[in-house]
């Protein structure tokens, strides 16, 4: 698996954390998802009915040699995403529920599923149905390659593809293959750097001059030292430009677009019907929410912020949007829609009104 240039593993307080600190930077809570029927009725475990298909196939595009990991070719249903995010947040205890929602949904660019600045591999997304079937934290590792356990006797190290970290009486187990596409390093104390795939060209990331190959950004992988050519920017309504780095940008340059990054966010500046206007690397771009975010999704505006999502019942772009409790039920913002999950039905003691996790952390 080929990874993007900014993929890092952050461990905060001994727990795996995908973006510690400002966990709402970057993409809005939204991404590759299928909302199912727009007329679906709310279910007892939260959100709209997932329908008969938990995943919807997405166009993977054309692959012509070593590229950014194509990632998942499916879009998980938002109801499934919400329930799984609640379960993972409670079982791991590190990140806020909204952070897991954001990372599972991903980013709008590329819409085929690659997430250059994201963290979650296809194996994690494909494990959401497995997580949804759990009624405790037992089995989480088998579903997504991640678990946190309490108790003494933790020994840090890395064997095969399993990395073990110890902190504050808790043991964190992480599957390097699932999250990073690699096994343990030779020292046995961390996940290994990515290996160059067969047929790739080696390079030095310190001296490599990034360029646009046709309309596709081409750069040297910081880990592994091999040339990566991403998908053509035009495939996503963007254009390739080199300004120190080769990146896709919006096709309408404007000084008003200050956001810089590797992905096109589901958060923007305005809506025209279902189409979101947003910024990427100095250029204005548009995102068809119904096509890129989820069939049946639309564009919504709350205050000064517009976003692709499911509703405007809550603000998924705000770091102040936290879950709340209604008895043992956690009420949370799922891409702008207020969803409900009964914590006790998932094996937890109840809803945690004193944290951002949602359900009570079991340790």
Q: Could you describe the 3D structure shown?
A:
The chain is of the alpha+beta class and 363 residues long. The chain has seven helices and 23 strands. Strand 1 and strand 2 form a beta hairpin.
Helical residue percent band: 10-25%
User: By helix and strand content, what is the structural category?
Assistant: alpha+beta
Give the amount of beta strand, in percent.
25-35%
Give the helix tally: 7
Low-confidence stretches: 1-73, 108-119
The H-and-E topology, N to C, reads as EEEEHHHHHEEEEHEEEEEEEEEEHEEEEE
Shape: flat
Residue-averaged pLDDT: 74
Strands, count: 23
* Main sheet characteristics: 4 strands, antiparallel
Keywords:
four-stranded antiparallel sheet; 7 helices; 363 residues; alpha+beta; 13% helix; single chain
How do you describe this structure in short?
It is built from seven helices and 23 strands. The protein has 363 residues and is of the alpha+beta class.
Provide the fold topology:
Blueprint: E1 10-12, E2 15-17, E3 55-57, E4 74-76, H1 78-92, H2 97-105, H3 122-126, H4 128-132, H5 140-144, E5 146-150, E6 157-159, E7 162-167, E8 170-175, H6 176-180, E9 211-213, E10 216-220, E11 227-229, E12 239-243, E13 245-249, E14 252-253, E15 267-268, E16 270-272, E17 275-280, E18 283-288, H7 289-292, E19 298-302, E20 305-309, E21 324-326, E22 329-334, E23 337-342
Antiparallel strand pairs: 1-2, 3-4, 5-8, 6-7, 7-8, 9-10, 10-11, 12-13, 14-18, 15-20, 16-17, 17-18, 19-20, 21-22, 22-23
Helix pairs in contact: 1-2
